[in-house]
Design goal:
This protein has one domain (3-439): FAD/NAD(P)-binding domain (3-Layer(bba) Sandwich). The chain contains 12 helices and 22 strands. The chain has helices spanning 16-28, 68-87, 107-120, 132-138, 164-176, 221-229, 302-309, 313-324, 326-337, 343-352, 410-425, 431-439; strands spanning 3-7, 9-12, 33-38, 95-105, 128-130, 150-162, 181-186, 190-195, 201-205, 209-212, 215-217, 236-242, 246-248, 256-259, 271-274, 282-285, 289-290, 364-366, 373-379, 384-386, 390-394, 397-401. The protein has an 8-stranded mixed beta sheet. A 6-stranded mixed beta sheet has the order 7-3-2-11-22-21, with helices on both faces. Strands 1-10-9-8 form a 4-stranded mixed beta sheet, with no helix packed on it. A hairpin with a 2-residue loop joins β21 and β22 (397-401). α1 (16-28) packs across α11.
Length: 448
């Protein structure tokens, strides 16, 4: 087994998180030797693939499960992706300007949405309230056959839809186009990472070994497994959550349509998304259910799965607390049933009718091959489920677990990691260049 040259940074994982860091290091730092490993034949075949997510640039404006503070953070983070798409000519190819809204159905939800609008309009000045007459004009399917009152909070002229695989591919191309020594190792699975006595890292793959002065792991649930193999993150466990979708057989909506979030439910409420890879036919979902997998549609490595669960009394306590709540328990059961043939479609369409009241079960079909896995992290010390990104960092090693909205925050996470790597390696970061290209555009500017 050969040992290759010493790289300054090694990146494990070629999804949007890993490739955004590759781009950021190549373009904005003076690091010269960077290597990235992807165990499959091309980038973003897992959660960053357009089939595995709802293709949403999460900004925090229509996601009603976000608090004001979280929305503020997500807005700043996601604006970097929007800015990249504008600056590097990706509008209409990588990111798409389309309408979006969240609808409130019934008087209780309408009052909550009005209060939310008053609070959030200062953070998102472009937001508008759309009444039933406006909705009938712009999205008639939302109003056909509707009996309850409805109100929407929406926006036009924004990048709402992103093909994160194409974004990853552009990140790679922009990195290659620099004068840096960029090595991309496809079809090469990292099996072991060890910190040597001299402080460098030895990275063993299924074919060879590489050495690097620093390492960043952006590999979903496997990020935690690598961290724990090195003695980090032992108080964390993974709850693997899968999600599936249903397709309509024709284009029903022009806009992304989200529904109001139940405050007790930890995962996003049902939404409808025109799919940019399927001639904008409407995709409903996702469902959310625990699945004994770390990677959807790939073979299960039982040992890895058991390690990721990290089961003990603290983890079990988190599961029991979730199941004790009737609302959460019924939600979990309902989502599990929605995965069943025929019966699942009949049940799911009742949820989808909150968006399109006249939708019939025969008008939708289970989206075969669609859906992904989201590694939700459990903090065993606090005995709680952590929603959002989790980061473990020490001594030149960084491990990221980035469920939604991780793709939308990918450039922000990469920026944070790049600054940490530069500090650790004594490298320079071109803040002025990064500011002018990635940080300086206000969300929504230039979108129209």
């Amino acid at each position: 087994m050969l040992v290759n040259k010493l790289f300054e940074t090694a990146i494990i994982g070629g999804g949007v998180a890993g490739t955004s860091l590759l781009f950021t290091l190549a373009r904005y730092t003076d690091l010269k030797d960077i290597i990235i490993f992807e165990k499959y034949e091309e980038v973003s075949l897992l959660n960053s693939n357009p089939k595995a997510n709802s293709q949403t640039l999460h900004v925090g404006d229509i996601e009603t499960n976000y608090t004001y503070e979280k929305a503020k953070r997500v807005k700043k983070a996601s604006s970097m992706v929007s800015n990249f798409i504008h600056h590097f000519g990706g509008v209409g190819e990588i990111g798409f300007v389309r309408d979006k809204m969240v609808i409130a159905v019934g008087s209780d939800e309408i009052e909550k949405l009005k209060r939310r609008y008053e609070l959030f309009k200062t953070l998102y000045p472009y937001l508008e309230l759309w009444d039933e007459a406006k909705l009938k004009q712009i999205e008639p399917k939302l109003m056909e056959g509707r009996k309850e009152p409805v109100l929407a909070m929406g926006a036009t002229g924004q990048i709402t839809t992103v093909d994160f695989k194409k974004l990853s591919e552009r990140f790679v191309q922009e990195a290659i186009d620099t004068e840096k020594n960029i090595q991309i190792r496809y079809n090469e699975e990292v099996t072991r990472i060890v910190r040597l006595e001299d402080g460098t890292y030895e990275i063993t793959t299924d074919t060879t070994r590489f050495n690097a002065r620093s390492v960043v792991v952006n590999a979903g649930a496997y990020s935690l497994l690598f961290a724990q193999s090195m003695g980090y993150g032992l108080d964390y466990a993974i709850l693997p959550i899968g999600g599936s979708f249903f397709f309509t057989k024709e284009k029903l909506l022009n806009a992304k349509v989200y529904t109001m979030q139940h405050p007790k439910l930890p995962f996003a409420a049902i939404h409808a998304d025109p799919d940019c890879t399927q001639e904008w036919c409407t995709r409903f979902g996702p469902t959310a259910f625990a699945l004994p997998k770390l990677e959807r549609y790939h073979s299960l490595h039982l040992r890895d799965f058991i390690s990721a669960l990290n089961l003990d009394k603290d983890v079990t306590s988190v599961y029991m607390d979730l199941l004790k709540d009737k609302t959460i328990r019924n939600y979990i059961l309902r989502n599990a049933v929605e995965e069943l043939p025929w019966l699942g479609r009949e049940l799911f369409v009742k949820d989808a009718q909150k968006i399109i009241p006249t939708l019939r079960a025969e008008e939708i079909g289970f989206a075969e091959g669609y859906g992904g896995m989201r590694p939700q992290v459990i903090d065993k010390k606090q005995q709680k489920l952590l929603l959002g990104e989790t980061r473990i960092a020490d001594s030149g090693a960084i491990f990221n677990m980035t469920p939604s909205p991780g793709a939308s925050s990918s450039l922000s996470i990469a920026y944070q990691d790049a600054l940490a790597l530069c500090a650790y390696l004594g490298a320079a970061f071109d803040e002025e260049k990064h500011l002018s290209e990635i940080q300086n555009r206000e969300q929504g500017a230039g979108s129209k």
